[in-house]
UniProtKB/TrEMBL annotation:
The keyword Oxidoreductase applies. The keyword Oxidoreductase applies. This is Xanthine dehydrogenase small subunit. Keywords: FAD, Flavoprotein, Iron, Metal-binding, Oxidoreductase. It comes from Nitrincola iocasae. The chain holds residues 1 to 162 of 489 of the full protein. GO terms for molecular function: 2 iron, 2 sulfur cluster binding; FAD binding; iron ion binding; xanthine dehydrogenase activity. Residues 1-84 form the 2Fe-2S ferredoxin-type domain. The lineage of its organism: Bacteria, Pseudomonadati, Pseudomonadota, Gammaproteobacteria, Oceanospirillales. It comes from the Bacteria.
Amino acid sequence: MQFMLNQTHIQLDECAPDTTLLEYLRTHLVQRGTKEGCASGDCGACTVVLAESGGDGLRYRAINSCITYLGAVDGCQVITVEGLSHQSGQLHPVQQAMVDQHASQCGFCTPGFVMSLFALTHQPQEPHDTTPTERIHQALGGNLCRCTGYRPIIDAAKSLLS
Ligand code: FES
Ligand code: FES
């Protein structure tokens, strides 16, 4: 199987069928920006973005890497928080918005929120779509934060959609 991890091509001759994407990222590739919280698809700490080719270009969606088997990303691009900032060190606009709105405290949930927002900002708005606030709530519905409170995170999201 093969996939892109950010801009790096990864090819594996074999992998255990029960290896999760999160386990592979953190243990095998030592990419630890993606966090493990609940390990059962409930908290969003492990969120990464999957880019898949669709009929009209790439489609981006946030997934929980803790409940995604590695084999499921064959042929896709996996985007993690390590892949967002510029090589110069300049933050991605999503990251900068989180900083500007003071939307992080302990930071454990932050990569997951950032990746969910990254996916949101790459999704086309359907003509019949919901309001920006509804889109934000929908996009962040799977991400939990136990210390910041959600208002600054929502404010960061609003600044990105405005
Ligand atoms: Fe909680 Fe994956 S670690 S959803
Ligand atoms: Fe600590 Fe969200 S900033 S859990």
